Amino acid sequence: MIDVSCAIIRNEDSLILVVQRGPETDHPFKWEFPGGKVDQGETPEDSVIREVSEELDMDIVIVGTLGSVEYDYGQKLIRLIPFVCDTLQEKPVLSEHNDWKWVNQKELLFMDLAEADVIVASDYVATYNHSPVVEDEAEDPLTSDPEIIDTETVSDEELKGMVYRMMGSSEVGWIASSAASNPVLFRKLIDFTEDKDPRIVFRSSWALTKVCDTNPSLFNNFLPVIIRKLLMCNNESAKRSFLKILTLTGTTSLSESDRGQLTEVCFSLLRTKESAIAVKAYSMDVLYEISHDYPDIIHELAAALSMIPDDGSAGIKSKSRSLLKKLTAIKK
């Protein structure tokens, strides 16, 4: 039996990514969840993250699992191991598949999926097509008006539970709207980005980017904190969110010391091969903005960007070429 990992990838709108197999594959033109064979000595979790990165050039965070599915295709017997994953990226870069789509749960059930993936899709919809279960009969704060969230009576663990159960953009929007009008909740979200649970880190940093989309001025006094968190952060999703916040707020109000630290960490992220694609893209944007006030870094940034074509990401290659042209204009 062959162990195969697959990812049910959801975006900010709770849509699910499906990809279409090519004409020369075992199941030509069938749709499937991305993934692949688990290599010897590799965990299924590591396998699914590697396969999605290699096939789609996407960064994902595993937030749940479904039961494995054993299926006999005749020529091979597989055990399909599904992981429920979240991503903040908008589109994949295909290297092996024929096409891709974001679909909702109803559309998912009507896709021409490979046989084992049909079972996984049904299991996913049966598991996630309902409101989160609340242990008691009290009203779940997550499904209520965020105006009622009272941080004086709701414990940190209850707030974490609300963040943990966020499943789509509407729920993230509720938390973000409440945080925008509640300084205590806003600060709690910042603190939660250091939690040990990667799902709490992912969702709290995601909510902060939603706050920044509409209220960037709220971060004016917190930008040094965001930079320090970026320096210490090991979570790629949180790094992506911190950098997005810094691109939305701008860096002109930062002290020389803070801007120096930010420049250093962005160069490091840009040069590190293992950095997520979105992290590299936002690092480029931050460094490009800083270069306007600190032209001494233009040559260093141009040199770093010139090495990007070896990275292998089509999106990053295109962005680096565009920024190199802009840097040339600045130097002139």
Question: TL;DR?
Answer:
The protein is an alpha+beta fold. The chain is about 50% helix and about 15% strand. Strand 6 and strand 7 form a beta hairpin.
3D structure, described in words:
- This protein has 332 residues and is α+β, with helices and mostly antiparallel strands.
- The chain folds into two domains: 2-128, Alpha-Beta Complex (Nucleoside Triphosphate Pyrophosphohydrolase); 141-331, Leucine-rich Repeat Variant (Alpha Horseshoe), CATH 1.25.10.10.
- The protein is 50% helix and 13% strand.
- The protein has helices at residues 44-56, 105-109, 115-128, 156-164, 169-181, 183-192, 198-214, 223-232, 236-249, 256-271, 277-293, 298-306, 314-331; strands spanning 2-10, 16-20, 31-32, 35-37, 61-65, 69-72, 77-86, 99-103.
- Strands 1, 4, 5, 6 and 7 form a five-stranded mixed β-sheet that branches.
- Strand 6 (69-72) and strand 7 (77-86) form a beta hairpin.
- It is globular, with a radius of gyration of 21 Å.
Question: Which features does this protein show?
Answer:
332 residues; alpha+beta; Nucleoside Triphosphate Pyrophosphohydrolase; Leucine-rich Repeat Variant; 3-stranded antiparallel beta sheet; 8 strands
Beginning-to-end CA distance, first to last residue = 62 Å
Q: What count of helical segments does DSSP give?
A: 13
CATH fold description of the largest domain: Leucine-rich Repeat Variant
Oligomerization? single chain
Q: Show unreliable segments.
A: 130-146
CATH architecture field of the largest domain? Alpha Horseshoe
Portion in beta strands: 5-15%
Strand tally is 8
The dominant shape is globular
What structural category characterises the helix and strand content?
alpha+beta
* Major beta sheet summary: 5 strands, mixed
**CATH top-level class of the largest domain:** Mainly Alpha
The CATH H-level superfamily of the largest domain is Leucine-rich Repeat Variant
Task: Report the average pLDDT across residues.
Answer: 85
Question: Could you tell me the radius of gyration in angstroms?
Answer: 21 Å
Order of helices and strands: EEEEHEEEEHHHHHHHHHHHH
> How many domain modules?
2
Q: What percent of residues adopt helix (DSSP H or I)?
A: 40-55%
